[in-house]
Amino acid sequence: MRREEVRMGREPLRLVQFTRSFHIGGTEVQVLELLRGLPPSYRLQVSVLEDAGPLMGSLWKLGHAPEAFPLKGSVAQPNTLYQVYRMARWLRAHRVELVHVHDFYSTLIAVPAAKLAGAKVIVGRLDLSHWQGRARRAVHAQLTRMADHVIANAEAIRRMLVEEEGLPATRVSVIHNGLDLQRFDARVREGLKGPLPDTNGAPVVVHVANMNHPVKRQEDLLLALAMLRHGGTRLHAYLVGDGPRRPELEKLAGELGVADTVHFLRHRTDVPAIYKRATFGVLCSNAEGMSNAVMEGMAAGLPMVVTRVGGNPDLIRDGERGLIVRPEQPAQLAQAFTQMLSNPEKARAMGRAAREFVARELSLEKLVRQHDALYQRVARGSGT
Predict the structure, then answer these.
(1) What's the mean pLDDT in 148-174?
(2) What is the DSSP string of 209-266?
(3) Separation in Å, CA 97 to CA 30, 121, 133, 189
């Protein structure tokens, strides 16, 4: 507990972190980091929609057993209202002062429940709602307007909330994701968990993303590689991630004549070690929030080639920490790859600058400090 709070006899701030589940994902990892890092001036509790996921073990080690408010299928059924009622009662019983909710489906429960219980609520908006249809976007926007404050993790998301959804700028804060460099470096030192394809010393680009949705645009990467191949440059690619689109992407690699240099690694738990064996990294999505994949590539000291969407420009300054191209432009990707390969000294300098940026601007300490200050202000009207 802070010294001034001890002197004043203030009780710990009763805070609930609410997320959908603890499956592996950027949001879930950020929630765990907050639970680890917040000071003893909090009485922390966790709630979820689904009491499941491989990160549950990490949550239990921190001493938290989450309270579940399951949706059980479609949200358009009486159970949703019942879970709102259950959560409101739970919040009142535990005298919760503040709820921080991190995703769309949890927001459906948390915002009305907090209002019924008389608790403050902060809504996290962590992407550009590119996956939502018109109806869901409208619902999300309305629930966001009901919140006491909103956290965006990228400047592009803040602009969307203010300019498109009409939120007052004073009710939106940008807090970038944080990365534990010590833990990341330890995972690098642990090394590979499985073999990597042999490239015979040829340069390698790494792309880390799921293969669930076309938004990740792996096909643009394959087209760029084919253009380089046509021009006489052999660049291998490690595609880390899996999903229902993988078979069609593998077929496209064959049709483009790059199947021998494009390696589909599927899901891997040793991404930091894979990054350290690459020449540079890429993320060529046509929509993004604040990408943990880009952050991890930067932490590994890689220059990154990214598209000018979402939070990518918050991370990469063109020509300084990597290169930025327009989305859905494979020819521009190919040109950026050529720049990286033709000037390796400049590429390494950009990688060093990227690593320094992560250490300076994206530390866990900064993540926790900014959340702590905002929680105190929203819940109790006090600064830190």
Answers:
(1) 95
(2) --SSSGGG-HHHHHHHHHHHHHTT---EEEEEB--TTHHHHHHHHHHTT-TTTEEEEE
(3) 21, 8, 32, 42
Provide the β-strand partners of residue 238: 206, 263
CB 366 within 8 A of CB 175: no
Tokens of 311: 């939070």
Q: What is the DSSP letter of 170?
A: G
Query: Which residues fall within 8 angstroms of residue 265, CB to CB, at 6 or more apart?
Result: 196, 238, 239, 240, 274
Q: Are strands 280-283 and 262-266 parallel, antiparallel or unpaired?
A: unpaired
Q: What is the mean pLDDT of residues 57-69?
A: 96
Amino acid at 209: A
Contact between residue 103 and residue 124 where contact means Cβ atoms under 8 Å apart: yes
With CA atoms as reference, report the closest residue to 265 among 194, 345, 370: 194
Q: Return left, alpha or beta for 301; rule: phi > 0 is left, psi -120 to 50 is alpha, else beta.
A: left
Measured distance CA(111)–CA(238) in Å, rounded? 41
How far apart CA 221 and CA 330 sit, in angstroms, is 7
First vs last Cα of the chain: how many Å apart? 13
DSSP 105-163: HHHHHHHHHHHHHT-EEEEEE-S--TT--HHHHHHHHHHHHHSSEEEESSHHHHHIIII
pLDDT of residue 3: 46
- Cα radius of gyration (the chain): 22
Q: Which domains does the chain have, with CATH numbers?
A: 3-178+363-380 (3.40.50.2000), 182-361 (3.40.50.2000)
Q: With contact defined as beta carbons under 8 Å apart, do 222 and 195 qualify? A: no
Nearest to 372 by CA among 170, 151, 155: 151
The number of C-alpha atoms within 13 Å of 14 and in the hemisphere containing its C-beta is 13
What confidence category does residue 286 fall into, taking pLDDT thresholds of 50, 70 and 90? very high
- For 249-252, the CB contacts below 8 A with 24+ separation are 249/211, 249/218, 249/219, 249/222, 252/219, 252/222
**Unique residue bearing structure tokens 């470096």:** 185
Contact 148, 378 (CB under 8 A): yes
Residue type at 352 in one-letter notation:
R
CA distance 198 to 327: 30
Model confidence, pTM? 0.86
